[in-house]
Write a structure and sequence with these properties.
The protein is 33% helix and 22% strand. The chain is α+β, with helices and mostly antiparallel strands and 373 residues long. The protein has a domain at 222-372: Peroxisomal Thiolase, Chain A, domain 1. 43% of the residues are buried. The chain binds coenzyme A. Coenzyme A is lined by residues 53-54, 57-58, 61-62, 156, 195-196, 236, 261, 263-264, 266-267, 300-301, 304, 331, 360-361.
Length: 373
């Protein structure tokens, strides 16, 4: 058995950002337009008037201040409210592979690993731009990796589930060096015209290099153990899938073909699930809260993370103990906890331990216990 370690991480951040003010201005223009166009039907009680959004609500309910996006123009056009992506030919890399390149390069550089040494690529994300060939195989080709690759989707928990899969393969000896890549183009599955969720998501890509600890060339993170759990729930759901054309009721603009959630229920049900999950993982490892230096949590909602931090640590987390990046990135699905880890871990000392933990649709929760070496 080999000891797996995280030796590099990388974050690709799109150049374009949308502030809450810009988002709400476009959303409200859409609402005004819709209500004007449907004035008669609204008056007759046949159509429900749409309500305007507010920056105060968004910040208070979520802690989000802005989000990065691959396309801003399409999202902010009140007559469109959907990103404009160029249709690519089959002979050029897809958009997920394109953003993966930057994150993979940064992670490989940090690890001091050449892409040709990688023998496993897992593309772990909430949405894949096509069914096959796997996006992971395209990333493997474009970066010049060897071995094999595949895609996996566990929604917001994809990154930690991917890390567990890679760490287990390294532990057993079936692979030596792995890249877990999380290209999250969440702007494509978000309904930007839905007031309840239009502010939630942002685009990003993260990448994590894992290898045998004995091969690490510099400071790294020992993966002590991982835990994954799932429990079925309809409270976060997207019905888009390969059978959509077979449905009898037409599918072109059906609301359930994009991200849907019952946010309140998610909040109430996922907070205890995650707190218990981390507590059990700690017990299994013989750790108590005093042994933990940091929690890098899934980045969906600030109050949710505050709750989980308080439950796990049994006290108010100190500033920096549970870093959030959602104010700048919003919810980036599986990539969120990896962004937090990548940007807020350099200062930790040898022997310091922490949990990377993601959670979301499924429901799913994955925790990775790491120690600085
Ligand atoms: N602007 C202004 N008001 C808004 C609004 C907006 N954009 N969206 C909703 N509101 C209103 C609602 O209509 C409601 O009004 P009412 O009290 O008069 O009925 C009120 O604000 C509260 O809405 P609610 O949806 O209950 O807000 P919330 O406090 O639950 O916050 C979320 C919403 C989504 C931010 C929060 O529930 C959440 O983050 N849940 C967890 C989500 C999660 O982790 N999902 C995983 C996704 S991968």
């Amino acid at each position: 058995m080999y000891q797996p370690a995280i030796t590099g991480t990388g974050v690709f951040t799109p150049e374009l950002a949308i502030t809450n003010a810009e988002l709400v201005e476009a959303f409200n223009a859409y609402v005004d337009m819709f209500n004007a166009e449907n004035a008669q039907a609204i008056e007759a009680g046949e159509v429900t008037a749409l309500e305007r959004s507010s920056t105060d609500f968004i910040f208070k309910a979520s802690g989000i201040e802005q989000r990065y996006v691959l396309d801003k123009e399409g999202v902010l056009d009140p007559t469109r409210m959907y990103p404009k992506f160029r249709q690519r030919s089959d002979d050029e890399p897809g958009i997920m592979t394109e953003i993966a390149m930057d994150a993979c390069k940064k992670a490989l550089d940090q690890a001091g690993v050449d892409a040709s040494e990688i023998d496993l690529v897992i593309c772990a994300a909430s949405n894949m731009e096509r069914a096959y060939p796997a996006i992971g195989v395209e990333i493997q080709k474009e970066i010049g990796a060897g071995g094999f690759a595949f895609d996996m989707n566990v929604a917001c928990s994809s990154a930690t589930f991917g890390i567990q899969a890679a760490a287990d393969m390294i532990r057993s000896g079936s692979v030596k060096k792995a890249l877990v890549v999380n290209p999250e183009i969440t702007s494509g599955h978000l309904e930007w015209r839905d007031r309840d969720c239009h502010f939630i998501f942002g685009d990003v890509c993260t990448a994590t290099v894992l290898e045998r600890e004995e091969d690490a060339k510099g400071p790294h993170w020992k993966v002590i153990s991982t835990r994954c759990a799932t429990e079925f729930s309809n409270n976060i759901r997207n019905n888009n899938g390969f059978l959509r054309r077979n449905r009898p009721d037409g599918v072109a603009d059906r609301r359930d073909m994009q991200f849907m959630q019952n946010g309140r229920k998610v909040f109430k049900e996922v907070v205890p699930m995650v707190s218990k999950h981390i507590a059990q993982h700690m017990t299994d490892e013989g750790l108590d809260a005093g042994d933990l230096k940091r929690l890098w949590l899934h980045q969906a909602n600030k109050s949710m993370n505050d709750f989980i931090g308080r439950k796990v640590l049994g006290r108010e987390p100190e500033p920096g103990e549970q870093p959030n990046i959602l104010q700048d990135y919003a919810n980036t699905s599986s990539a969120g906890s990896i962004i937090a880890f990548s940007k807020h871990s350099e200062d930790m000392q040898p022997g310091d331990k922490g949990f990377i933990c993601s959670f979301g649709a499924g429901y799913s929760v994955g925790s990775v216990l790491v120690e600085r070496v």
